Amino acid sequence: MGQTIGKSEIGELEICEITGCHSLEEIHQLSLSGLNLMSVNSDVLKRLRNLHSLDVSKNKLSGLKLEGFTLNSLKELNCSSNNLLSVDDFVLFPNLEKVDVSDNVSLEVADRYKLVSLLPKLKVLEDKDVSVMREAVKKFDGILAAKVAEHWNGHFEEAYRMSEDVSYRTDVANEFIQSLQTDVVIGPAALKKYREFKLTLLGQEHAVKRKHEKSAEQRPAKALKTSPAEVEETIFQSQNYKPQFKSKRVGVNYAQSEFVLSQLLQTHSLNNDPSDRRTQVWACEFQPDPLNPDKTTTLCATCGGDAVCFIECKTGEVSKKYKQPGDVFYCLAWTVFHVKTASGVEYRTALAVGGKQCDIRIIQPEDLVCYDSVEAHEGSIESLHFHPTEPTWLFSAGDDNQIVLSELGLSTAAKTNPKATILMKLRTQGILRSLTVPRHGEVLVGGGDKGCTVWSIIACANKKSHLPLYELNFPGKKKVPLDCVKCLSDHVIATKRVKEPCIMLYYSESSFQKNDASPAFRLPWKVTDTPFIKFNFRADCDILIAGDDLGRVWIYDVNRCLCESRQGKKLEELKETQKLICANGTVKTFNHVCSSTNMDYVVAVADSNVVCVWRRLKPA
Domain Leucine-rich repeat and WD repeat-containing protein 1 LRR spans what residues (predicted)? Predict the structure, then answer.
């Protein structure tokens, strides 16, 4: 084997020369030992999809410094005799069974504890069986978990339980997590780094668990079912919930940030045809963070043609692609659900997608597994939306003029895949293109070819009435089709009607449970005859974004629209903060747009098989 000395990192050609393989995908074992490497080429490493064993010992690596991908095939990793400062990057190799980090002077016992904690399949560490250490880690984790619960109950539970203010409860949870580092001191000094690491994780998990419990206390809940008759009579019950106004923004106004076009991708080509400019990409949404569903990861799902793509926006890499030959996917929706495992409760994400073939597919993105195929409609699926407080309840609308509420079989044992059940079906006057539910979860709002209609979920689910509560009253022509409707808060929804050069915000004092909605704000937008252009809303920033048919994304700061009652006030006009432009000849119409937490990434999908990704430039 030839060796190259003095390289800061090593490239594809050199690796192929060292291994004698023609491509990176052929490589199963790779030794880069003793090459004086300062870093690992992440662009090369992420293409080693079939790599089983990697030896980077006897180099000058301070860390692997990788992000945005995982190597699930890697089972053995030798990083001995380097300058490693931490083992945090090892989480990118979840299936490691054998690891060597000996002779890295900065690594301590605490780092080895962390390795055992991060790598559930690890069997051998530095040529020693880890079963004894794993028992020690498990015992120490149990002690820490008890201390975390004790600290919460003694100092934070009462303040959290008594408050109905979401932002205040968030502050309490954050203070709790920070205080663990100073107030919980246990174990030997040699494990300080591991204790701090684990306390942060346990604190976050406890806060998320308490948040879900608090939501369950407040939200409308399914009734206790004691007999088959009661199952038929009562599916859904309302609790006393008080809709709230948002707080006025303090700090960064993300709508005024500077953005740069970072990726221009052609990801949905039929038959992998590079000249395909006809496949329309219809929808995009960022994956919610499983431990904090109000925020997102940087993974964006897009659908169009016969494919669903999962794009890591940090790198522009399509990390996964789900294909269903013959289908045309029109819509998608994410949810976060919990699964009971041997080690406790885990929070996971699932993606629902639907289109021309009439069924709804429930996809688990990490392993690209299809949990279920829900056959609820006799026509194409036009819109999907998960209930905000019942994460397994999925609303779907199809061109068969029906709304269907399905309960997905997700929150059960990890090794079973029970099928979805249909809770209710509603007939509609026309095709609905968009569904949305306010945070209180008691009404369903649908926009489509015949206007905008509101139903009581409680009355419909309990089979008391399948008739709508009311239809939204629009000024001017009453029966103009709607492209999109979205709840921005308990009191405000946004609507866009075909051929109208504006997006309208409607205010309801009753949080849309009565027919009292009236126009509150007018957001000027592009004059166009192009239908089916849908906008989106980033709730953590109070920013509404909308694409148009000139390859632009309009950004509106709507914070002040959500902070106070608009009852009796006149209609106001609110102009866009800025427009993002994609100066590319192939981009014409953006069918849909979305953004990640803090507007760090904005994604727009076009009718020309193009996905555009903008990155927010953060101040130095």
Answer: 24-199
544-573 residue pLDDT tens: 999 999 999 999 999 989 887 777 788 899
Is the pTM here over 0.85, yes or no? no
- Residue 299 amino acid letter: L
The answer to whether 446 and 403 have CB atoms below 8 angstroms apart is yes
The owner of tokens 């039929």 is 270
Class of domain 12-107: alpha beta
423-452: per-residue pLDDT in tens? 889 999 889 999 999 988 999 999 999 999
Sign of CA dihedral 212, 217, 218, 223: positive
CA distance 333 to 285: 7
Q: What is the DSSP letter of 501?
A: S
**CB atoms < 10 A from the CB of 108, how many?**
15
d(CA 531, CA 215): 37
- The radius of gyration of the chain's CA atoms, rounded to the nearest angstrom, is 26
Domain-by-domain residue ranges, the chain? 12-107, 132-208
| Distance from the Cα of residue 287 to its chain's centroid | 2
What pLDDT is stored for residue 343 in this prediction?
A: 62
Q: Is 116 helix (H, G, I), strand (E, B) or coil?
A: helix
